[in-house]
Amino acid sequence: MNNFEKAQATLIAKHQKLAQQQEELLEKSLAKQSDEHEKLTRENEALRAELASIDEMFGIENSAYREKKLQGIKDEFDLRGSRLQNLKELGNTNTYSNLCGKLKTAFSNEPAPPTEAELAYVEEQKALEESRIEKAKTIKVWDTIVEAAGMWSKDGQTAPDVELAIKSALFPTVYERVMKGNSDYYLETIPEAKAEKLVRQAHELIRDTRAEKDVFVTDPRHWDDLAPRFQSWVIESMLPELYGAKDKAWLTDEPLSLDQMQTWRDKEASRALDLPTIFDAYDNLKQVSDEHGTLDIGIAEFHKLTLETRIDTELPISC
Description:
rod-shaped
């Protein structure tokens, strides 16, 4: 082996040693990493300058192979330095032992076991997601029942005014409690038998009300007279039937006013400001539906059942 080859081998060995030192840096203190990397960079540049001097001394002009080899070593060196810096940033910790654990995990094929904090975070996120879905399902169950109540006659008449009156009682008693995370109010699916019974009652109440007064419940002149019939029915029949018990709080819950309900119905842009909790309920329902598709709460089967509860009538009402 001539002098050049020996010098070249020595330099390559030095570069390989530097690369090995770069690996060993992963086990050193975080406080020293930046300084050590800069030192290695300076040494690398010094070695390259020394190699250029040897080239000149031995009159070497075609050094493409050697340069390619050394460039590969340098690229690996730079990659390790970049990876180390990224890990320092991603580690987001000043604790040496924690960082070493993260670095070892990053360079290992075996995943590190999750920490207690990570497991707790996963469980927390899982619980939040389950709660989001439960809330969305509950709102969808109630909306479906109310919509079925509004489709009261066999000749196609509907009662959106009555639906609004029913919701004026449901919004504060049920929807707001659901959105506050009261799991006692959650409903996974439509309880078909109970809901069918309630829809039948609603249809009969609408028929009797229409027969008595040929007006809309939302007529400002008749709201105070007619709306309480449906609001009271919600509190005294609808809620106890579906939840299997009564809550004294329902008696003190104040139904929303006609102005509030009409604003909710007609001014979509102001819903978030006027009724933020109810807005959140429907916004959450939309998001969950977009993410998970149609919620399986038994809508199709329920609609089939309620077809038989619609009433034959010749009342000239078309809402």
